[in-house]
Structure prediction request, 491 residues.
Amino acid sequence: MIGLTIFLYAAQYRDGSLWLEILLNSGSEITLKAKSVSTPRFNIAEIDSPISRQIDGNLSIKLMDADKVAFWGFLNRVEPINKHSLIREEDLIREFFAWADSQLVIRREKLIFEPTTFSAYESAKTYASQTGIPHKQILSIPMLNTTVRIVSGTNTYYFETPILIKTENELFINGASLGFSGEFILKSIGESLIINHFLPLEDYVGGVIQNEIGSSAPIEALKAQAVAARTHAISLLLYNRHKNDGYDLCNGTHCQVYKGMHLSNNNIIRSVHDTKNQIMVFGERVADATYHSSCGGKTDSSANIWKGTPLPFLMGVSCWEECDSLDLTNEKNARAWIDTKVSSAGASSWERATLSWEKTVSRSTLENNLGIKGLRHIGINKRGNSGRIVSISFYGDKKVTLDSEYRIRQVFGELSSSFFYIKGGSSVSQGADVIKATSTLQLRGKGSGHGVGMCQVGALKRARNGASFTDILQTYYPGIVLSDRWLQSDN
Prediction:
């Protein structure tokens, strides 16, 4: 193994702010090209090393001997590290997030691996299959001091990872059409390089909200989205989803859509500034501030959609007054509400598209997606508070039952939501609404997304009607409290 081996985690506290690493791109080569015609200037430094250099010009970065620097091993156990722990130079250390005394803290743990390591993932996988080791125990062992070659014009430079790259120029990374500037961290993970944007949490929020709710949203809706996005980011950090990947959060829908300063404007900047550091808490824990595009009338409970422990602030609320009195778990009521036209005054085109939609699905497509033959009929077993189907059965040469809202949407061809009905005659059998499976099925529905937490269409409507961002948040997350005292500044 090369040099000190450590699982580099990303977050750190700097001047009272939480800084994060957000994945931007990865591959065998990373290219950094100026967005404008001007020559970019980079300051590049090896982290924890005095070696640094100023380089002018576009960059191409590649791993030296990529096939020799990747190590894969089997995780045996994890040991927490405290002030009494003995740390040796060869120990593998990983940092992770935790919530303690109403604050976000960064903790460390020692990873104990089996002595056998491999230079390729497939080799480790084969060995695991032969010896009965679960594949989930296979982890990449990031190596410090692996060498990268940086080419700029006719000049070539060599650095040892990880490296910090700073530039004031706006850059295209690996040919992407979005520009980024500031600080970047480049690492070697497995056989690839990854490049992360390294920035304060507030700047991250300012690169998320316009991509989630729209840059032209009313200011109070933007503030509500800023608090929800910031809170959701903290929740995701506590899940430690990417603790083995070399970054804190990804830049896609798996975490939140982050595009830097793309579509930013004065209202975006103001919404972040006016809600600085504010997150939602419930009791002594961070609220799970999930959100979605459009509930279609009512939001749903997290327990219905994701089968987890019921959360008091995510039990589902009425979003549209017109359906307050309707029980959308009832099939007849759900169908009637889907067919009800609602006002879309002031709404944008994407908002209107979520208020009513139709889709055609062939029986053969369903059979292929389900892995069944001779589909005869479909039974809707259960709807959630929002009317979304949360259990459905398909009857053919075998019976297939789905109880995942996401899976239901996928099997019908990536539906906007699972709040829909199938046109045509139906009958009730053993508590289920049963529909005959014809060669072509016509679906009619409302809403977009999973339906849990803040409904963005509803938030926009409320903001246009004069609601404050705190009113909006209290509507969709009842009982939450806003807090700006969750940063542990002495980490």
In short: The longest helix spans residues 219-239. DSSP finds 13 helices and 28 strands in the chain.
